[in-house]
Write a structure and sequence with these properties.
The protein is an alpha/beta fold and 385 residues long. The chain has two domains: 222 residues, Alpha-Beta Complex (Spore Coat Polysaccharide Biosynthesis Protein SpsA, Chain A), CATH 3.90.550.10; 155 residues, 2-C-methyl-D-erythritol 2,4-cyclodiphosphate synthase (60s Ribosomal Protein L30, Chain: A). It has twelve helices and 19 strands. Strands 1, 4, 5, 6, 7, 10, 11 and 12 form an eight-stranded mixed beta sheet that branches. Helix 3 packs across helix 5. 33% of the residues are buried.
Length: 385
Protein backbone atom coordinates (compact mmCIF):
# COMPACT_ATOMS: atom_id res chain seq x y z
CA UNK A 1 0.00 0.00 0.00
CA UNK A 2 1.41 3.38 -1.02
CA UNK A 3 1.68 6.10 1.59
CA UNK A 4 2.56 9.48 0.13
CA UNK A 5 4.28 11.28 3.03
CA UNK A 6 6.47 9.67 5.66
CA UNK A 7 8.81 11.08 8.28
CA UNK A 8 11.94 9.62 9.86
CA UNK A 9 12.78 10.90 13.35
CA UNK A 10 16.35 10.11 14.36
CA UNK A 11 16.71 9.18 18.02
CA UNK A 12 19.71 6.88 17.93
CA UNK A 13 22.26 8.98 19.81
CA UNK A 14 23.53 8.18 23.28
CA UNK A 15 24.14 11.89 24.01
CA UNK A 16 27.22 11.29 26.17
CA UNK A 17 28.33 14.91 25.81
CA UNK A 18 25.06 15.86 27.47
CA UNK A 19 24.65 13.24 30.20
CA UNK A 20 26.37 9.92 30.87
CA UNK A 21 23.33 8.26 32.47
CA UNK A 22 20.40 9.28 30.26
CA UNK A 23 20.13 10.21 26.57
CA UNK A 24 19.18 13.86 26.04
CA UNK A 25 16.06 13.01 24.01
CA UNK A 26 14.50 11.62 27.21
CA UNK A 27 14.97 14.78 29.27
CA UNK A 28 11.74 16.66 29.88
CA UNK A 29 10.67 20.20 29.03
CA UNK A 30 7.25 21.11 30.48
CA UNK A 31 6.45 17.49 31.37
CA UNK A 32 7.18 16.18 27.86
CA UNK A 33 10.40 14.52 26.73
CA UNK A 34 12.34 16.25 23.97
CA UNK A 35 11.56 13.42 21.55
CA UNK A 36 7.83 13.64 22.35
CA UNK A 37 7.82 17.36 21.60
CA UNK A 38 9.42 16.71 18.19
CA UNK A 39 7.26 13.74 17.22
CA UNK A 40 4.03 15.40 18.40
CA UNK A 41 4.61 18.30 16.00
CA UNK A 42 4.77 15.88 13.08
CA UNK A 43 1.56 14.19 14.25
CA UNK A 44 -0.22 17.52 14.78
CA UNK A 45 0.69 18.71 11.28
CA UNK A 46 -1.45 15.93 9.73
CA UNK A 47 0.92 15.94 6.76
CA UNK A 48 2.25 12.44 7.34
CA UNK A 49 0.75 9.01 6.82
CA UNK A 50 3.34 7.41 9.07
CA UNK A 51 6.22 8.41 11.33
CA UNK A 52 9.26 6.14 11.76
CA UNK A 53 11.36 6.65 14.90
CA UNK A 54 14.88 5.26 14.52
CA UNK A 55 16.07 4.43 18.02
CA UNK A 56 19.28 3.13 19.55
CA UNK A 57 18.76 -0.51 20.47
CA UNK A 58 19.30 0.42 24.12
CA UNK A 59 16.29 2.79 24.09
CA UNK A 60 13.70 0.97 21.97
CA UNK A 61 11.74 -0.21 25.01
CA UNK A 62 11.70 3.26 26.60
CA UNK A 63 10.66 4.84 23.30
CA UNK A 64 7.79 2.39 22.83
CA UNK A 65 6.47 3.32 26.27
CA UNK A 66 6.20 6.95 25.10
CA UNK A 67 4.38 6.28 21.82
CA UNK A 68 1.36 4.02 21.40
CA UNK A 69 -0.02 5.75 18.29
CA UNK A 70 -0.60 3.33 15.39
CA UNK A 71 0.74 6.04 13.08
CA UNK A 72 4.18 5.72 14.74
CA UNK A 73 6.57 2.80 14.26
CA UNK A 74 9.89 2.34 16.09
CA UNK A 75 12.87 0.58 14.54
CA UNK A 76 16.48 -0.10 15.47
CA UNK A 77 19.17 2.36 14.37
CA UNK A 78 22.72 1.81 13.18
CA UNK A 79 26.16 2.54 14.58
CA UNK A 80 26.22 6.00 12.95
CA UNK A 81 23.65 8.64 12.03
CA UNK A 82 24.14 7.73 8.39
CA UNK A 83 23.38 4.06 9.03
CA UNK A 84 20.33 4.99 11.11
CA UNK A 85 18.94 7.14 8.28
CA UNK A 86 19.40 4.29 5.81
CA UNK A 87 17.65 1.88 8.20
CA UNK A 88 14.75 4.33 8.29
CA UNK A 89 14.73 4.67 4.51
CA UNK A 90 14.67 0.89 4.03
CA UNK A 91 11.71 0.66 6.40
CA UNK A 92 9.96 3.52 4.59
CA UNK A 93 10.52 1.90 1.19
CA UNK A 94 8.01 -0.82 2.12
CA UNK A 95 5.29 1.88 2.08
CA UNK A 96 6.35 3.29 -1.33
CA UNK A 97 6.27 6.95 -0.22
CA UNK A 98 6.47 9.91 -2.56
CA UNK A 99 8.06 12.24 -0.01
CA UNK A 100 10.19 11.63 3.07
CA UNK A 101 11.12 14.08 5.83
CA UNK A 102 14.22 13.42 7.96
CA UNK A 103 14.52 15.13 11.33
CA UNK A 104 16.78 15.04 14.40
CA UNK A 105 14.65 14.38 17.48
CA UNK A 106 16.65 16.88 19.56
CA UNK A 107 15.39 19.84 17.51
CA UNK A 108 11.96 20.17 19.17
CA UNK A 109 11.27 23.87 18.53
CA UNK A 110 10.60 23.94 14.78
CA UNK A 111 7.19 25.30 13.78
CA UNK A 112 4.31 23.77 11.85
CA UNK A 113 4.79 26.63 9.39
CA UNK A 114 8.28 25.32 8.62
CA UNK A 115 6.91 21.83 7.95
CA UNK A 116 4.29 23.28 5.60
CA UNK A 117 6.87 25.42 3.81
CA UNK A 118 9.14 22.42 3.18
CA UNK A 119 6.19 20.38 1.93
CA UNK A 120 5.01 23.11 -0.47
CA UNK A 121 8.51 23.59 -1.90
CA UNK A 122 8.94 19.84 -2.36
CA UNK A 123 6.27 19.85 -5.06
CA UNK A 124 8.75 21.52 -7.41
CA UNK A 125 12.08 20.37 -5.96
CA UNK A 126 13.87 17.10 -5.17
CA UNK A 127 15.25 18.32 -1.84
CA UNK A 128 14.26 21.21 0.46
CA UNK A 129 16.54 22.29 3.32
CA UNK A 130 15.96 24.99 5.99
CA UNK A 131 19.05 27.14 6.54
CA UNK A 132 20.17 30.21 8.43
CA UNK A 133 22.60 32.90 7.35
CA UNK A 134 25.73 33.39 9.48
CA UNK A 135 25.86 36.86 11.05
CA UNK A 136 28.64 36.41 13.59
CA UNK A 137 32.28 36.74 12.63
CA UNK A 138 33.86 33.38 11.82
CA UNK A 139 37.49 32.41 12.47
CA UNK A 140 39.65 29.44 11.51
CA UNK A 141 41.82 28.49 14.48
CA UNK A 142 44.49 25.79 14.48
CA UNK A 143 47.36 26.04 16.95
CA UNK A 144 48.69 29.58 16.34
CA UNK A 145 46.94 30.00 13.03
CA UNK A 146 44.05 32.49 13.45
CA UNK A 147 42.37 33.47 10.18
CA UNK A 148 39.27 35.34 9.13
CA UNK A 149 36.66 33.29 7.22
CA UNK A 150 34.26 35.04 4.89
CA UNK A 151 30.69 34.45 6.03
CA UNK A 152 29.19 35.71 2.76
CA UNK A 153 28.45 32.22 1.42
CA UNK A 154 28.19 30.32 4.71
CA UNK A 155 24.93 28.65 5.78
CA UNK A 156 23.83 26.86 8.94
CA UNK A 157 21.94 23.69 8.01
CA UNK A 158 18.86 22.54 9.94
CA UNK A 159 16.37 19.70 9.99
CA UNK A 160 13.64 18.73 9.17
CA UNK A 161 14.82 18.16 5.60
CA UNK A 162 12.38 17.13 2.89
CA UNK A 163 13.16 14.82 -0.06
CA UNK A 164 11.55 13.06 -2.96
CA UNK A 165 11.89 9.55 -1.59
CA UNK A 166 13.44 7.71 -4.54
CA UNK A 167 16.23 10.31 -4.90
CA UNK A 168 17.42 10.21 -1.29
CA UNK A 169 17.01 6.42 -1.07
CA UNK A 170 19.18 5.83 -4.16
CA UNK A 171 21.79 8.31 -2.93
CA UNK A 172 22.08 6.57 0.46
CA UNK A 173 22.10 3.14 -1.14
CA UNK A 174 25.10 4.09 -3.27
CA UNK A 175 27.27 5.71 -0.58
CA UNK A 176 30.75 4.22 -0.74
CA UNK A 177 32.88 4.97 2.29
CA UNK A 178 32.08 8.70 2.63
CA UNK A 179 30.91 10.14 5.95
CA UNK A 180 28.21 12.84 5.83
CA UNK A 181 26.88 15.02 8.62
CA UNK A 182 23.50 15.59 6.98
CA UNK A 183 21.39 14.08 4.21
CA UNK A 184 21.28 17.06 1.86
CA UNK A 185 25.02 16.59 1.29
CA UNK A 186 24.46 12.92 0.45
CA UNK A 187 21.96 13.95 -2.21
CA UNK A 188 24.11 16.80 -3.53
CA UNK A 189 27.09 14.50 -4.07
CA UNK A 190 24.90 12.47 -6.40
CA UNK A 191 24.43 15.52 -8.65
CA UNK A 192 21.03 16.58 -7.36
CA UNK A 193 19.91 20.17 -6.88
CA UNK A 194 19.23 21.45 -3.38
CA UNK A 195 16.51 24.01 -2.62
CA UNK A 196 17.39 26.19 0.37
CA UNK A 197 14.62 27.93 2.32
CA UNK A 198 14.72 30.17 5.36
CA UNK A 199 15.06 28.23 8.61
CA UNK A 200 14.15 29.33 12.14
CA UNK A 201 16.46 30.61 14.87
CA UNK A 202 14.34 28.82 17.46
CA UNK A 203 14.96 25.52 15.65
CA UNK A 204 18.29 24.87 17.37
CA UNK A 205 19.72 21.46 18.20
CA UNK A 206 19.91 20.55 21.88
CA UNK A 207 23.48 19.34 22.22
CA UNK A 208 24.69 20.68 25.57
CA UNK A 209 23.11 21.36 28.95
CA UNK A 210 23.25 25.05 28.10
CA UNK A 211 21.07 24.33 25.04
CA UNK A 212 18.66 22.43 27.29
CA UNK A 213 18.34 25.39 29.68
CA UNK A 214 17.76 27.70 26.71
CA UNK A 215 15.07 25.30 25.49
CA UNK A 216 13.29 25.47 28.84
CA UNK A 217 13.32 29.26 28.72
CA UNK A 218 11.96 29.26 25.18
CA UNK A 219 9.25 26.81 26.14
CA UNK A 220 8.22 29.03 29.03
CA UNK A 221 7.88 31.92 26.61
CA UNK A 222 5.75 29.84 24.25
CA UNK A 223 3.56 28.71 27.14
CA UNK A 224 3.14 32.31 28.20
CA UNK A 225 1.89 33.22 24.74
CA UNK A 226 -0.40 30.20 24.62
CA UNK A 227 -1.91 30.84 28.05
CA UNK A 228 -3.45 34.28 27.63
CA UNK A 229 -6.93 34.39 29.18
CA UNK A 230 -9.65 37.06 28.99
CA UNK A 231 -12.40 37.51 31.55
CA UNK A 232 -15.34 39.92 31.75
CA UNK A 233 -17.43 41.01 34.67
CA UNK A 234 -20.65 43.02 34.96
CA UNK A 235 -22.62 43.95 38.03
CA UNK A 236 -25.52 46.26 38.93
CA UNK A 237 -26.82 47.42 42.32
CA UNK A 238 -29.86 49.57 42.92
CA UNK A 239 -29.93 52.61 45.21
CA UNK A 240 -31.66 52.68 48.58
CA UNK A 241 -31.89 55.25 51.35
CA UNK A 242 -28.57 56.02 52.99
CA UNK A 243 -25.79 58.50 53.65
CA UNK A 244 -22.83 56.88 51.84
CA UNK A 245 -21.90 54.06 49.45
CA UNK A 246 -18.88 51.84 48.83
CA UNK A 247 -17.11 51.82 45.44
CA UNK A 248 -13.85 49.93 44.92
CA UNK A 249 -13.49 49.72 48.71
CA UNK A 250 -13.70 53.52 49.13
CA UNK A 251 -16.43 55.08 51.29
CA UNK A 252 -18.10 57.94 49.38
CA UNK A 253 -20.51 60.46 51.01
CA UNK A 254 -23.84 60.46 49.12
CA UNK A 255 -27.53 60.85 49.80
CA UNK A 256 -28.14 57.18 48.92
CA UNK A 257 -26.43 53.83 49.42
CA UNK A 258 -26.33 50.64 47.35
CA UNK A 259 -28.53 47.66 48.09
CA UNK A 260 -26.98 44.18 48.30
CA UNK A 261 -26.34 41.14 50.47
CA UNK A 262 -22.75 42.17 51.25
CA UNK A 263 -21.61 45.79 51.17
CA UNK A 264 -22.92 46.02 47.54
CA UNK A 265 -19.58 47.27 46.18
CA UNK A 266 -20.47 47.08 42.49
CA UNK A 267 -16.86 47.83 41.47
CA UNK A 268 -15.19 45.05 43.46
CA UNK A 269 -17.95 42.58 42.58
CA UNK A 270 -17.51 43.05 38.83
CA UNK A 271 -13.71 42.73 39.14
CA UNK A 272 -14.05 39.45 41.05
CA UNK A 273 -16.46 38.14 38.38
CA UNK A 274 -14.00 39.08 35.63
CA UNK A 275 -11.12 37.27 37.35
CA UNK A 276 -13.27 34.18 38.00
CA UNK A 277 -14.33 34.26 34.35
CA UNK A 278 -10.73 34.39 33.14
CA UNK A 279 -9.89 31.42 35.37
CA UNK A 280 -13.02 29.55 34.17
CA UNK A 281 -14.16 29.16 37.77
CA UNK A 282 -17.76 30.32 37.66
CA UNK A 283 -18.96 33.61 39.16
CA UNK A 284 -19.07 35.39 42.47
CA UNK A 285 -22.49 33.91 43.30
CA UNK A 286 -21.08 30.38 43.03
CA UNK A 287 -18.35 31.14 45.56
CA UNK A 288 -20.32 33.46 47.84
CA UNK A 289 -24.06 32.62 47.57
CA UNK A 290 -26.33 35.51 48.63
CA UNK A 291 -28.49 32.91 50.41
CA UNK A 292 -25.66 32.29 52.88
CA UNK A 293 -26.03 34.52 55.95
CA UNK A 294 -22.28 34.56 56.67
CA UNK A 295 -21.73 36.89 53.70
CA UNK A 296 -24.31 39.38 54.96
CA UNK A 297 -22.72 42.90 55.04
CA UNK A 298 -19.30 41.35 54.26
CA UNK A 299 -16.70 43.87 53.08
CA UNK A 300 -16.07 43.11 49.40
CA UNK A 301 -12.32 43.50 49.80
CA UNK A 302 -12.55 39.96 51.24
CA UNK A 303 -13.85 38.72 47.86
CA UNK A 304 -11.03 40.57 46.08
CA UNK A 305 -8.38 38.89 48.23
CA UNK A 306 -10.09 35.55 47.61
CA UNK A 307 -9.78 36.17 43.86
CA UNK A 308 -6.13 37.16 44.32
CA UNK A 309 -5.44 33.88 46.17
CA UNK A 310 -7.15 31.91 43.38
CA UNK A 311 -4.88 33.56 40.84
CA UNK A 312 -1.85 32.41 42.83
CA UNK A 313 -3.25 28.90 43.22
CA UNK A 314 -3.99 28.57 39.49
CA UNK A 315 -0.58 30.15 38.63
CA UNK A 316 -1.97 33.12 36.70
CA UNK A 317 -1.27 36.82 36.94
CA UNK A 318 -3.18 39.93 35.90
CA UNK A 319 -1.80 41.74 32.86
CA UNK A 320 -4.33 44.54 32.97
CA UNK A 321 -7.77 45.51 34.25
CA UNK A 322 -9.99 47.84 32.22
CA UNK A 323 -12.93 49.07 34.29
CA UNK A 324 -15.93 51.20 33.30
CA UNK A 325 -18.20 52.61 36.02
CA UNK A 326 -21.64 53.62 34.71
CA UNK A 327 -23.78 56.13 36.64
CA UNK A 328 -25.21 59.65 36.50
CA UNK A 329 -24.43 60.35 40.14
CA UNK A 330 -22.40 60.52 42.29
CA UNK A 331 -19.66 62.24 40.32
CA UNK A 332 -16.73 59.92 40.93
CA UNK A 333 -13.90 61.44 38.83
CA UNK A 334 -12.31 62.99 41.91
CA UNK A 335 -11.96 59.51 43.45
CA UNK A 336 -10.32 57.89 40.42
CA UNK A 337 -6.77 57.76 41.85
CA UNK A 338 -8.11 56.43 45.17
CA UNK A 339 -10.08 53.74 43.32
CA UNK A 340 -7.03 52.61 41.37
CA UNK A 341 -4.88 52.51 44.50
CA UNK A 342 -7.52 50.47 46.35
CA UNK A 343 -7.85 47.95 43.51
CA UNK A 344 -4.08 47.54 43.13
CA UNK A 345 -3.64 46.98 46.89
CA UNK A 346 -6.50 44.45 47.14
CA UNK A 347 -5.10 42.37 44.25
CA UNK A 348 -1.43 43.13 44.98
CA UNK A 349 -0.74 44.41 41.44
CA UNK A 350 0.98 47.52 40.05
CA UNK A 351 -1.30 50.56 39.71
CA UNK A 352 -0.12 50.80 36.07
CA UNK A 353 -2.11 47.63 35.35
CA UNK A 354 -5.41 49.22 36.41
CA UNK A 355 -7.50 51.58 34.28
CA UNK A 356 -10.79 53.06 35.50
CA UNK A 357 -13.18 55.06 33.35
CA UNK A 358 -16.49 56.69 34.15
CA UNK A 359 -19.45 57.19 31.85
CA UNK A 360 -23.19 57.86 31.87
CA UNK A 361 -26.12 56.57 29.81
CA UNK A 362 -27.15 60.10 28.78
CA UNK A 363 -30.18 59.97 31.09
CA UNK A 364 -31.46 56.81 29.37
CA UNK A 365 -32.73 53.70 31.18
CA UNK A 366 -32.67 52.83 34.86
CA UNK A 367 -29.10 54.13 35.20
CA UNK A 368 -30.11 57.39 33.53
CA UNK A 369 -33.02 57.69 35.96
CA UNK A 370 -30.45 57.37 38.78
CA UNK A 371 -31.93 54.15 40.10
CA UNK A 372 -28.53 52.47 40.58
CA UNK A 373 -24.92 51.99 39.47
CA UNK A 374 -23.38 49.46 37.05
CA UNK A 375 -19.81 48.43 36.46
CA UNK A 376 -18.23 46.58 33.55
CA UNK A 377 -14.75 45.01 33.69
CA UNK A 378 -12.36 43.29 31.27
CA UNK A 379 -9.26 41.48 32.54
CA UNK A 380 -6.42 39.72 30.74
CA UNK A 381 -4.53 36.98 32.53
CA UNK A 382 -1.41 35.03 31.68
CA UNK A 383 0.51 32.13 33.18
CA UNK A 384 2.78 33.19 36.03
CA UNK A 385 5.85 30.95 36.20
Amino acid sequence: MQKSNLAIILSGGLGKRFNNKKAKQFFKINNLTIIEKSVNKFVESRLFDEIIIVSHDKFIKDTKLLFKNKQISIIKGGKTRQESVFNGLKEAKKKKPKYIFIHDSVRPFFSLNLLNSIFINLKKNICVIPTLDVYDSVRYLKKKDYQDVSRENLKLIQTPQGFCFNSIYEAHKNIKGSIYTDDSMVLYDFKNKIKLIKGEKSNFKITTKEDFELGKLLSKGLNYMNEIRVGTGFDVHRFKKGKFLKLFGIKIPFDKSLEGHSDADVGFHSIVDAVLGGLCLGDIGNHFPPTDKKWKNKASVFFMKYARDLLIKEKFKINNLDITLICENPRVSVYKSSFIKSVSEALNIDIKRVNIKGTTTEKLGFLGREEGIACQVSVTLSKDD
